[in-house]
Design a protein that fits this description.
The protein is an alpha+beta fold. It is about 35% helix and about 20% strand. The protein is built from eleven helices and twelve strands. The chain has helices spanning about 65-75, 80-85, 95-105, 125-135, 145-160, 170-185, 205-215, 225-235, 245-250, 285-295, 325-330; strands at about 20-25, 30-40, 45-50, 55, 190-195, 200, 205, 255-260, 265-270, 275-280, 310-315, 320-325. A hairpin with a 3-residue loop joins strand 8 (about 255-260) and strand 9. The longest helix is centred in the middle third of the chain and has 14 residues, at about 145-160.
Length: about 350
């Protein structure tokens, strides 16, 4: 069960990761991906753990749903597509840029008020198109612009300063860290800077899974439930066309899922069953099949997860293997089969 007050921070140490996936080619294990995995029961108990789920780690963008909850609690009035975008690591498609502009317009601001790092769109096809057109990196195209626009809107509504909204001591960031600790059930271990320039909070993988579970089991109409509803109903606004995390939410009814750089994945079901994954080397080729295997252990029917089994390895242009979760993850309890 979840505690009413946050516990102490997770220990800062070199994570004691374990093998979580094998790169199998022609029946031989050619490579091994290490990492950590936790699967929670609906009551918050640990159903399965591999590696080091209690060490401090950076959840990267997998924490964005929690940050969005914090902004709603601070008065942000967004819902639907724009709220999904506030929790997004978007692909830089025109709908994403238009949505971020709309949030800024609601705040009475422009792109020049953003303080995230200028970048080209995340999606390779969209990025290549930008380059062919001679378009330059922009703050709006950077994949966290929806979050940053929402942060600025929250500041405007509360009368908080804008130029320093990314300072960890700013009222906005203090409000966010309070909700991070509330939903994860533990104090933040360290604060650093994420790739986009926003503060990044070190929590445990276990705490990340707890937070996702609390968001998906929240009472309808609460900030937590509003974030979950927005992301599930507008999965492509929280990611992009062709992105695996959007496909996962479409494939599994009621699932909330969010990925993060460096091989992080979190997902939770409406009943509170949740998973969190960290791939030590940051490889997406392992993140996706490991997350799918963990979801099967959480009770998701494997037939809903077949498209997430991992991309085949090719030899001479033909499939000769794939990345497979380790046997401890692939062993699915009978109750989950079907």
């Amino acid at each position: 069960m979840y505690s009413a007050s946050p516990a102490g921070p997770p220990p800062v140490r070199e994570p004691r990761h374990a093998p979580v996936a094998h790169l199998v080619r022609g029946g031989v294990v050619e490579g091994v991906h290490h990492g950590s995995v936790v699967v929670l029961d609906p009551d918050g108990g640990i159903r399965l753990q591999l590696g080091d789920i209690e060490a401090a780690c950076y959840p990267r963008s997998a924490l964005k749903p929690v940050q969005a909850v914090a902004m709603l609690r601070a008065g942000l009035p967004l819902d639907g597509e724009l709220l999904s975008l506030a929790a997004a690591s978007h692909s830089g498609e025109e709908r994403h840029l238009a949505g971020a502009r709309r949030v800024l317009e609601l705040a009475g601001l422009t792109e020049s008020d953003l303080r995230n790092v200028p970048d080209l769109p995340f999606d390779p096809v969209v990025r290549d198109s930008w380059i062919r057109q001679g378009r330059l990196p922009s703050r709006l195209a950077q994949n966290c612009s929806g979050k940053h626009a929402a942060m600025l809107y929250t500041c405007v509504l509360n009368g908080w300063s804008l130029d320093d909204y990314l300072d960890p001591g700013h009222p906005l960031q203090q409000a966010i860290v309070e909700i991070v600790e509330d939903l994860t059930g533990q104090r933040v271990a360290r604060v650093t800077v994420d790739g986009c320039g926003a503060p990044l909070f070190a929590i445990s993988l276990h705490g990340l899974a707890r937070a996702a579970a609390r968001i998906t089991t929240a009472v309808p109409g609460t900030p937590e439930a509003r974030v979950a509803d927005a992301m599930r109903e507008h999965a492509e606004m929280a990611s992009g066309a062709g992105r695996d995390v959007a496909a996962l939410m479409r494939a599994v009814p009621g699932l909330l899922a969010k990925d993060g750089f460096e091989g992080v994945q979190v997902a939770a079901r409406p009943d509170g069953g949740a998973i969190a994954v960290k791939i030590a080397d940051g490889a997406d080729r392992a993140r996706v099949p490991v997350a799918a295997a963990a979801l099967a252990r959480a009770g998701v029917a494997p037939r809903l997860l077949t498209e997430f089994a991992g991309e085949p390895l090719l030899g001479g242009g033909k499939p000769v293997g794939r990345v497979r979760p380790v046997p401890a993850l692939e062993t699915v309890p009978p109750a989950s089969r079907g």
